[in-house]
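sry for the spam today, last one i promise. struct tokens for design, 112 residues
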């Protein structure tokens, strides 16, 4: 029998199963419109770097050897990333783009 079934369409063939169809039963993905990696926002890599960890362990060890509790605590904050978070929070609170406009003018005038 050579009659074609009118209820089937061309996208139902097994060779087309890898492609996204635009039929009403399936959902096609939207076109990709980004040029690079997705998912890296402003909070990417907010933890301590390897250098911060090494420096923190060094300071922590110096603090233990010299019985300097402040140095030990500073080393712990470096290793855990707490120091980096505190610095970032202080920077965001103190130096916003509109916080001190006279400082921005001095910086731009000194470069010229």
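last one done:
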């Amino acid at each position: 029998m050579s009659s074609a079934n009118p209820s089937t369409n061309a996208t139902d063939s097994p060779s087309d199963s890898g492609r996204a169809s635009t039929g009403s039963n399936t959902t096609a993905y939207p076109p990709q419109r980004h040029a690079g990696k997705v998912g890296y926002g402003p909070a990417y890599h907010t933890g301590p770097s390897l250098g911060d960890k090494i420096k923190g362990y060094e300071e922590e060890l110096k603090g233990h050897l010299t019985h300097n509790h402040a140095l030990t605590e500073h080393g712990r904050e470096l290793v855990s990333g707490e120091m980096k978070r505190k610095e970032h929070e202080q920077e965001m609170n103190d130096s916003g783009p509109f916080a001190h406009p006279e400082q921005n003018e001095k910086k731009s005038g000194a470069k010229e």
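The chain is about 45% helix and 0% strand. ok im logging off now
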